[in-house]
Design brief:
Elements: H1 20-23, H2 25-34, E1 40-45, E2 55-60, E3 63-69, E4 75-79, E5 99-101, E6 108-110, E7 115-117, E8 141-147, E9 150-154, H3 162-172, E10 181-183, E11 189-193, H4 197-205, H5 210-213, H6 215-220, E12 226-230, E13 234-239, E14 257-262, E15 266-270, E16 274-284, E17 287-297, H7 307-334, H8 351-363
Antiparallel strand pairs: 1-9, 2-3, 3-4, 4-8, 5-6, 6-7, 8-9, 10-17, 11-17, 12-13, 13-14, 14-15, 15-16, 16-17
Amino acid sequence: MDDLASVLEPIETASGLPGRCYTELSAFEEERRQIFGRGWFCLAFANDLATPGDLLPVDVMGMALLLVRTGEGEIRCFHNVCRHRGVRLVERPERGRKAVRCPYHSWTYDLEGRLCATPHIGGVDRHEAAGFRRSGRGLFPVRTGVWMDMVFADLSGRAPALGEWLAPLLERWRGFPLARYRPAAAEPIRFRLQANWKLAVENYCEAYHLPWVHPGLNRISSLADHYPIVDAAFSGQGSTRYTSRGELPCADDSELAEYVAVYPNLLLGAHTDHFFAMRLDPLAPDETLEDARLWCLADAAAGSAHADARRRLRARWEEVFREDIDIVERMQRGRRSPAFDGGCFSPAMDSPSHAFHRWAARCLGAKEPA
C-alpha cells in the first residue's frame, strides 16, 4: 500500500503507520487476516483453565474460539461454533465438564473435539441417520502451543514450530532463570484501554518516555541505564540497573532487566527475581484489553512466606501499567487528526518502535522503497 511504503525507509526519514491503521474498521479486519491470521500470537494463560474439563471461550478480533483442558491435561483449541447450525457453543468459562454440548439441539462433542452425540438426528429417538457420519463433523481445531503458562495459537496452521519461533528470544534470555519461574499467586492485572492495540506495543517498546510518564520507575531504573533491543520478531529495551530487588529470592546478583514486545501482542519483562507477561486482546480499532500476570522463582511463587512481597510487586507493576493508559489513549485520539501524517522517529531512542512499525507494515503488504 502506498501509504505504508515510507514506514520501511531508514529511521531518519521514515514515517510511522498512518492514522487509518488505528481508527478504521477495515484496517482492523485486515490485521486479523494478515497479522493474527498468519502466525503465532498469545491467546490466553493456561492457568485460566487449570484442571481437566475446564472450558474457556476467547475472541480474537471477533473470531470465536474455545480453549479446552482435556482429560489428559492437554490444552486444545477449536472454533467455538457447532457444526450443525452454527451456534456459538460456550459463552462463559466452565469448569469440570466431560463434554461440550450445543444448547440448540444438544449435539455433543468430547474434549478432543469429536462429535459424539446427535440426538434425534434420524427422527424421534433415532440418534443416527443413514449417510451421516459423525467422524467428519468434529469441531474445527486450531493449532496451539504452551510456553511458560502462555497459550499461543496459529490460525494458519503453517507457522514454524512454536519452539523454533521463540528460539531467538530464548537464546537472548538464556541468562535469565526462565526454567525456574512459576506463576505467582497474585491476582491478574487488567485494564481496558480506549486505544488501538498497536499503540500499547509501541509505547512498551521504548524507554524514551520513562522520566515523564514513569518517574517512580525511572528512580530505580533510569533512562540513562537503558538500551534498545531489536530483533526480527521482537523489540524492546533493557536496563543495566534495575535496583528494586531484595524482597523476593533472586537467581543471582545481576541488576539486568529486559522488556520486549513479542509481535504481535505479547509484552514480556524478565528480571532475576520475577517475570511478567501482558497479553493484548484487540477488541476494536480503538479498544484493547490488557491482561498481565506475574511469575516468581519457584520457592517464592506461592505460600505465605512471600505473600506480602508478591502483593507489593503486583502493586508496583499495576501502578506502572496504569501510568501508560492516559498517554496511550491520547495517542489514539491524536490518530484521528487530519494533521497526523504517521509521525516520525528519534534515531537514537525509537529504533524498537520503528522496528515494530516496519514488521507490521510488511505484514500488511508494504513494499521496500526503490
